[in-house]
Amino acid sequence: MLITSDSSFLAHRSLHVWKKIGQGSFSKVYLSKFGDAENNSGKLMATKVINKNRVSTKFVEKFLPRELDVMLKLRHPYIVKVYSVFQNGYKIYINMEYAENGDMFKYLQKMELTEAQIRSWLLQILCAFSYMHGVGVVHRDLKCENILLTSRYNLRIADFGFARFVDRGRNPGADTVCGTMTYSAPELLYGERPYNPVAVDVWAIGVVLFIMCNNVPPFRKSHKKEMHRKQMDKHFAFRRSSGRSRTLIDLTNTFLEPNVLKRTKIKTALQHPWIKEGNIKMPADVAIANETITASISEPIITETSLRVPEFHYQLPEYEKSISTDNELFTAVVEEIEVFEPKTLKLKK
Question: Which of 6, 69, 103, 141 is catalytic?
Answer without folding.
Answer: 141
